[in-house]
Amino acid sequence: MPQDKTIKRFTFISGCLSWVLLLVNVLFLARQGHEGEANAAFPYLSNLLSVIFILSVFLYQRHHVQRQRSTEFTTPLWGLFVKGGLGAYLCLLFSIGYPGLNQHWVNSPYLLDVFYQVVFGLLVYFLGKAFYTWRQLILYQKTKDVQNQWKWFEILVFISLLVPLFNVEYMNHIFLILDLGLLLGYSLYMSVHLRWVAFLSLDKKWGSILLLTAILASGALFAKFLFQYTDSPELVIDYTDNPFLLLTLAFVLFYALASLLVALFSLPTSRVFEQKNADLLSFQRLSQTIQQGKNEEEVYNMLFESAIKATGADAAWLDIGEATHLDTSQINGSPLDEEVQAMVKAFMTMVHEQDSSAIDQTYLNGELHLLPEFKSLHSPYFSLLVVPLVSAKRRYGHLYLLLEVEQGFDPDTVSVVQSFANQTVLTIENLRLMQESLHNERYKEELKIASLVQDRLNPKTFPTDTWFDISTYSQAAKEVGGDFYDYLQLSESRIAIIIGDVSGKGISAAFHMAQMKGIFHGLMQQDLLPDEFMVQANSALSRCLERTSFITSALYIIDYKMQGVSFARAGHCHTLYYNSMMEDTFYFQTEGLGLGIVRDASYAKRIHRLHYDYNPGDVMVIYTDGIVEARSPRQEEYGEERLKYMLSQTYHLEAEDIKSAIINDVNDFSSDILHDDQTLLVIKFKHRQPNN
Amino acid sequence: MKIKHTISDNTITISLDGELDASSSVLLDEELSNPSIMMFGKILVDCKNLNYISSAGLGVFISHLQRFEDAQIKLIFFNMQEKVRNVFEILGLDLLMTIVSSYEEAVTIAND
C-alpha cells in the first residue's frame, strides 16, 4: 500500500531526526550541568523529542511488522531477536568496556550520556518491534473480542505517553500510579492470548523456546541498563520517568515469559497434536485424490503410508485380493519376515473360517505372544490389527499392521485406521465409477453415430408423382432398431416399396436390417415379382441369419399406369386398405411365412402373391407391429381394430394428415411410451392428372 | 415367466406362465436345448397362461423346430390365447406348427 510506504518513510525520517536532535539537546544539557553556563538547551525539549522518537519508532513498526498468515511462528521470533534483541548484547559489550574506555581513551563526562542515549534508542526499537510482533501472535486466529481488547490496550498504552509530554512526575500522583498499575494488569491479561503456541510442531516448539529465552534475556539486559544508570549524577535525563517505556517493557517481558512457559509445558502433549494433525492431513489427501486425477495405485499407497504413520506400525502389508500389494520393506527398506507374514495370514484364515462374517470386520489382537504358533516363531510382534477394505458390493483386501508392544493399538488409533480404510474404499469406488461413466459415454457416442447412420438408411423422401401421395413415420425404441422401409423405382411407372421388421431390438437387429436393405436393392435390380423376391431373400438370409432370428417383410410393387398393386407378405403385419369405390376399410388376408424360419426350398410353397386393382382415392396403410402392439399404461394392446377404425375416419384426408392422425392416436393410447420400434407408411392413390 | 414341465411316458408337457419376452426366452431356450428333451417323442406346450410372446420368444421355437422335426419329435401347442395365436398366424407359423385348442386334442394328435 502506498499509504503504508509514506507513513513508514515519514516515521523513519522523523525517528532518526528526533534521536539526533535528542542527543544534541542532551549533550547541551550536560554541558550546562558541567560548565554552569546557560545555552540553547531546554530540559523539556528532551521529553518532547523522546516522545516524538518513541512515537515514530512504534508507528514505523506498526506498519512494518507483517501480518501472520502461516503457522511459521519462528520466523518473526527470529527476526525480533536478530533485529531487536541483539542490540542488548551490543550494549552489554559496551558497558563491559565502558570503565576501561572512559579511563584510558576518551575520558569524557559526556560518554555516559551518549551511551545512555544509544541504549535508549536500541531499547525503543526493540520494544516497538516486540510490541507489534506480539500483536501479530495475539491476533493469530483472532476473535472479535480479542481484536477489541487489543485496540483498547494499544490506545491506553499510547495515552501513557502524555505523562512525559506534560512533564508530570507520576510518582507524585497517587491516581496516576493507580492508573498505570491497572494498565499493567491489562497488559498481563493480554499475555494470556497464546493460541499460536498450540500450532507449533515439536521441533518448532524447541526453536521457539530458545528464541523466547534469548529475547527475554535481551529484554532483561535492556531493563538492567535502563535502571543501572538512573541514579548516576552525570545523567541529565532519566527515562525511568517515562511510564510508557516501563509499561511496554513489562508487557514485552510478560508475554515472552508466558509464551516460553506455555511452550515448555505443552512440549509433552505436542506429539498428540501433531499426530491428530497428520491424521487430518491424511484424510484430506485421501479425499482429494479424485479431483487430482490419481489412480488406484496411488490411493492404496496413500492409505498404506497414512495407516503406518497413524499407528507407528513396526511391520505392515496391504493385501489386495489375495496377493500382497504393498509392504513395509518398500517404505523403510527392512524386509518383512516372510515366516511371520505367512503365519499371520494362516492365522487370519483360521479366524475367518471360524466365523464367516469376521472377514469383513476389523480384527484386533494385542497379545499375540499368548498364541502358541507365534511363540514358537520367536516373532518380535505382540499386537496385530487387521482392517478390511470392503464396501457393500465388494471386498477389496485387508490391511495388516503389527506392533512390537503388547496392546499397542488403542481404540482411537483403530478407529482412525478404519476411517482411512473406509475413505480409501469410497475413493476407489468413485474412481471406478468415474472410469465406467467415461466408458459408457464413449459407447453412447458410438450408439449415437449408429443411430444417425441408420436414420440415413430409411429414405426421408419418396419420388413425388401425381399418381400417389406417400407419407412415412419411423421411430426406434432404442438408439437403433430393427424396423426398415425403402423403395426402388423399377421403371417409369412402377415403384417397389418394402417394409420390414427384424426380430429383436438394438444393435443386432440394426445389422440385419441393413443386410435386408442390401438384399432388397440387389435382388430387385432383376425386377422380380414380390413372391419371387421373398423366396430369393429367404434363401439369401438363410445363409447369414442366426438360428433364432427371423425377418418379417412385405413388398409392394405399384404400377400406376395399370392402376394396380401386387404384393407379397412374409409374416409381416396385414396390410390395411380403404377402397373408395366400396367405401370399405379392411385388411388383406394373405398368407405368407416370415423370412428365415424355414431355410430350404420348401419356403416357396409358403409365400403367395396378391394383385389388386386400385381406384383413385384408395388408401393403403403399411406398418410394423410396434404400431398395433403399442401398449396402454393398463397393458392393453392398440390392436388392428382401432387402427382400422382410425383409417375409416380419416381416409378423406391427405396421406400426411392420415399418418399424423394415426400416430397421435397411438401416442395418446400408449401415453408416449415406446416399447418397440414403430414404422408407418400411408399411401394414397390419386386421380390421373391430365398433364401426365 | 414361469416354466414348468410334467412328464408322462413318452410325453413332456411344458407349461408357460407369464410373458415370453427377450429375457425369459433365454430360460425357454435352455429348457428346449437340454439334451434329455430329445428322449421324448412328443412335446406339448401349454399356452394357457402365456399372455404375450415377443419375437425373441418366437425365435426360440423357430430355432428348435427343425431339430425336433429331424428327430421326428412332435411339437404341439394347445390352449393358446387369441392374441398370442394371432401373432403365430400373422407370422405364418400356424401352418408350420401344430396349434390346437385343448389338451385332449393335443394328446389325440400326438398319438396319431
TrEMBL record, chain A:
This is Serine/threonine protein phosphatase. Residues 465-685 form the PPM-type phosphatase domain. It holds the Pfam family SpoIIE. The keyword Phosphoprotein does not apply. One of its GO terms (molecular function) is phosphatase activity. InterPro entries: Bact_Sigma-Reg (IPR052016), GAF-like_dom_sf (IPR029016), PPM-type-like_dom_sf (IPR036457), PPM-type_phosphatase-like_dom (IPR001932). PANTHER family: STAGE II SPORULATION PROTEIN E, STAGE II SPORULATION PROTEIN E-RELATED. Keywords: Hydrolase, Membrane, Transmembrane, Transmembrane helix. Coiled coil: none annotated. The chain crosses the membrane at residues 12-30, 42-60, 80-98, 110-132, 152-168, 174-194, 206-227, 247-267.
TrEMBL record, chain B:
Transmembrane segments: none annotated. One of its GO terms (molecular function) is anti-sigma factor antagonist activity. It comes from the Bacteria. Residues 1-110 form the STAS domain. SUPFAM superfamilies: SpoIIaa-like (SSF52091). PANTHER family: ANTI-SIGMA FACTOR ANTAGONIST TM_1081-RELATED, ANTI-SIGMA FACTOR ANTAGONIST TM_1081-RELATED-RELATED. Belongs to the anti-sigma-factor antagonist family. This is Anti-sigma factor antagonist. It comes from Rufibacter immobilis. The lineage of its organism: Bacteria, Pseudomonadati, Bacteroidota, Cytophagia, Cytophagales.
